[in-house]
């Protein structure tokens, strides 16, 4: 281990620009960009995200010196994992939009291969119709990532897709899964993908081979997020429900009953009498079954 990869917000002529902003009496935000705010953060001050590599000797390399990239905006479930380092440590896969392109409607998040020697980024999905997100390197040098078939639409399905960086060929792992993956990681002990997906208000853990197929549910019953495999056949997750704050659990990648690891909230919950939670189903419009919870 001789290098550290990190991301940082860069600003052209940063010190001067910050001083000008601080001294200005104008509080209005002015921009020509469609995406100008992300939750409580303004995106109008000229800052851009850069990826850097620093050696243990302190040598820093800016991997994206042009400053035209904006990564896929993060979600609460997975805030920073928009890049993954190749197993040989020579390059990364990164999901980001190139803001220097003349987008007709809105920026498209594409998949990029970025060498760690600073020689420049290469787009791996130039002809994809939708966005790319959360790339993960597989043992054979291919990349699995989430692909949509529309740009920047919250309800569009996500398809787990394998891409060959050499040929740029893509193949979906499945075509007929009724669920939407929320996060995915590669399990080093098996080479399979561990996938979380929501079904009937709960988030379950699934497993699927990189060769393809419909993901198989291996753990369910509550809301499981943030899988972290340890490489020995065990995966750690956050487990929570309406009645239980998040705690870390572990379970075999082959399935089973999760074992509680942390007890961070036990003292806070001690002595509290929480309301009883009951799941109910009723017949709604057009005879559809509707799920509800009664507390």
Ordered list of secondary-structure elements with their pairings:
Layout: E1 3-10, H1 14-23, E2 37-38, E3 41-42, E4 48-55, E5 60-62, E6 69-71, E7 83-85, E8 91-98, E9 110-115, E10 122-123, E11 132-137, E12 143-147, E13 159-163, E14 170-172, E15 181-186, E16 193-199, E17 202-208, E18 216-219, E19 223-229, E20 234-241, E21 244-252, E22 259-260, H2 266-269, E23 278-283, E24 289-294
Antiparallel strand pairs: 1-4, 2-3, 4-5, 6-8, 7-8, 8-9, 9-10, 11-12, 12-13, 13-14, 15-16, 16-17, 17-18, 19-20, 20-21, 21-22, 23-24
Give the amount of beta strand, in percent.
Answer: 35-45%
Structural class computed from helices and strand pairing: mainly beta
Biggest sheet details = 5 strands, antiparallel
Coarse shape: globular
| Intertermini distance | 51 Å
Unreliable segments of 5+ consecutive residues: none
Number of beta-strand segments: 24
Overall radius of gyration: 22 Å
Number of helices: 2
List the secondary-structure elements in sequence, H or E: EHEEEEEEEEEEEEEEEEEEEEEHEE
Can you give the mean pLDDT?
A: 87
Which percent range fits the helix content? under 10%
Provide structural commentary.
There is one protein chain. Helix content is 5%, strand content 43%. With 295 residues, the protein is mainly β. The strands form seven sheets. Strands 6, 7, 8, 9 and 10 form a five-stranded antiparallel beta sheet that branches. Strand 17 and strand 18 form a beta hairpin. The mean pLDDT is 87.
């Amino acid at each position: 281990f001789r290098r550290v990869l990190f991301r940082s917000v860069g600003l052209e002529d940063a010190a001067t620009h910050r001083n000008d902003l601080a001294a200005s009496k104008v509080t209005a935000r002015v921009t020509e960009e469609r995406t100008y705010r992300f939750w409580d953060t303004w995106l109008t001050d000229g800052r851009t995200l850069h990826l850097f590599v620093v050696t243990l000797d302190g040598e820093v390399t800016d991997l994206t010196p042009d400053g035209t990239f904006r990564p896929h905006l993060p979600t609460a479930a997975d805030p920073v994992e928009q890049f993954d380092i190749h197993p040989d440590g020579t390059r990364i896969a990164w999901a980001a939009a190139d803001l220097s392109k003349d987008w007709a409607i809105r920026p498209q998040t594409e998949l990029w291969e970025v060498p760690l020697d600073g020689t420049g980024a290469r787009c791996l999905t130039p002809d994809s119709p939708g966005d790319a997100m959360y790339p993960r390197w597989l043992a054979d040098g291919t990349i699995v990532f989430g692909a949509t078939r529309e740009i920047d639409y919250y309800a569009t399905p996500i398809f787990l897709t394998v891409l060959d960086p050499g040929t740029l060929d893509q193949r979906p792992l499945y075509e007929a899964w009724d669920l939407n993956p929320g996060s995915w990681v590669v399990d080093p002990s098996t080479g399979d993908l561990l996938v979380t997906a929501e079904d009937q208000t709960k988030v379950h853990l699934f497993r699927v081979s990189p060769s393809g197929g419909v993901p198989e549910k291996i753990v369910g019953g509550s809301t499981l997020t943030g899988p972290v495999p340890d490489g020995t056949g065990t995966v750690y997750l956050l487990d929570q429900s309406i009645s239980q704050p998040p705690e870390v659990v572990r379970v075999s990648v082959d399935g089973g009953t999760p074992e509680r690891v942390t007890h961070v909230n036990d003292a806070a919950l001690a002595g509290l009498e929480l309301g009883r939670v009951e799941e109910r189903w009723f017949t709604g419009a057009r005879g559809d079954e509707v799920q509800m919870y009664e507390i």
